[in-house]
Amino acid sequence: VTVLFHLGEMATATESLDDSTFEVLGSEIGYKVEIVSPEDEDKELLESFGLNLEQEELDEDDENLEIRPPVVTVMGHVDHGKTRVLDAIRKTNVIDGEAGGITQHIGAYQIWTEHEGNERAITFIDTPGHEAFTAMRARGADVTDIAILVVAADDGIMPQTVEALNHAQAAGVPVVVAVNKVDKPDANPAKVRSQLTEYGVVAEEYGGDVMFVDVSALRGDGIDNLLEAVLLTADAGLDLVANPNKEARGVAIEAKLDKGRGSVATVLVQGGTLRVGDPIVAGTAYGRVRAMIDENGDRVEEAAPSRPVQVQGLNSVPRAGDLFLVTEDDRMARQIAEKREAVERNAQLAKARKRMSLEDFTKA
Ligand code: GDP
Ligand code: MG
After folding, report:
1. Which residues form the pocket of ligand 1, taking CB atoms under 6 Å from any ligand atom?
2. Ligand 1 atom with least separation from CA of 217
3. Which ligand is nearest to the CA of 179?
4. Which residue from 340, 320, 322, 324 is spatially nearest to 255, judged by alpha carbons?
5. Which residues pair with 108 in a beta bridge?
6. 297 Cα–ligand 2 center, Å
7. Binding-site residue ranges for GTP
8. Which ligand is nearest to the CA of 78?
9. 8 Å CB contact between 323 and 39
10. Per-residue DSSP letter, 107
11. Which atom of ligand 1 is nearest to the CA of 86?
């Protein structure tokens, strides 16, 4: 407090200060202050349990890596047809013999489609818009491999088209452009192509490397071509592999409290294989996987990389974007969750204290 006073900063001993003030204060009294981000703090927390996820990934043996399906997010301007496109995809290309198709909204779904003579899976995040995308990235969760940018052919490029594109580009995620509503009499798909060149998105037929597909989500036209384009984009340079032979980890896509079933969380497995009975921690939620269901409402016993499943058995509701991981035992899951909760509580206390001291200050 004294040093700060001499620096011209009025502060009390219980007050929160900003990063740069801490750095100046530190150097004044002969310390180098290191600012630790919440992500780093969590990394250290996990390391104290012997978990170093990044290192593990680096140490991954090539022999263990297997091809995994691409994870796709649909983005674009409001009313350009994101929801319709997701619906149209959901209706087509469901695994053979799966009568009725995808019935449950669990926040993500996987479809199968034939591609160059093989059955290939694609995972879709079922919440359109870039809000979900950015919220997840803000938590450090990079779930998307490919973004489908939906642009209505009768409307062309709009502000949120550009915004979505910026988000995808910032994340280094390739886009496939779905030129939608081509059934409309005033549709002008060529204009969409030429407009997007101004943003560095150049169609293959114009000599660029981005695939554009004309679709009518309303009629279901062009959806197969769109899926084809997604797989071609995935195969052209995206190295989509994961090790299914380890304890699972991934991201919570969405979660809620269900009257009968308690906490239900849709998670996307990114590495390893998730199994019923696994002890699991997701953010500050923990528990044991009691049951898993897929997008058809069917029970599943295990989920491999890129597979979304709805998990029951957590003691509370994780947030979208929270990372989940399977731990050695129940105790470790609980301890990690409790330590994280303590970290969050402290952060909130610090905030409240800062608010209070500000109020004191203005009162005085
Ligand atoms: P979102 O806001 O991007 O999710 O857009 P929606 O999927 O809700 O679609 C907005 C409106 O456009 C709805 O009235 C849809 O029925 C309509 N729409 C979506 N796709 C098509 C299409 O391919 N053709 C036509 N004619 N209308 C469409
Ligand atoms: Mg919508």
Report:
1. 76, 78-84, 128, 180-181, 183-184, 216-218
2. 23
3. 1
4. 320
5. 125
6. 23
7. 76-83, 126-130, 180-183
8. 1
9. no
10. S
11. 7
**ipTM greater than 0.95:** yes
Residue 234: per-residue pLDDT: 96
Output the CA angle 9-14-18, nearest 5 degrees: 50
How is residue 13 written in tokens? 């001993």
Q: Whole-structure pTM over 0.80, yes or no?
A: yes
Looking at residue 218, its pLDDT comes to 95
* The pair of three-digit structure tokens given for residue 351, joined into one six-digit string: 């905030």
Give the strand pairing for 308-314 and 285-293.
Answer: antiparallel
Give the model's pLDDT for residue 243: 95
Structure tokens at 211: 């695939």
User: Closest by alpha carbon to 23, among 10, 14, 36?
Assistant: 36
pLDDT of residue 97: 45
In what helix (H) or strand (E) does residue 267 lie, and over which residues does it extend? strand 262-271
Evaluate whether 140 touches 322 at the Cβ level (below 8 Å): no
pLDDT at 346: 83
Atom of ligand 1 nearest to the CA of 76: 3
User: Do residues 28 and 7 make contact, with C-beta atoms less than 8 angstroms apart?
Assistant: yes
| Tokens, residue 184 | 């409309």
What is the per-residue pLDDT for 14? Answer: 77
**Which string of b and e fits 186-206 if b means at least 16 CB within 10 Å?**
ebbbebbbeebeeeebbbeee
Q: Which residues contact 45 (CB under 8 A, 6 or more apart)?
A: 336, 339, 340, 343
User: Three-state SS for 102?
Assistant: coil
Cα(178) to ligand 1 centroid in Å equals: 13
Low-confidence ranges of the chain (pLDDT < 50): 95-97
* pLDDT computed for residue 349 by the predictor: 82
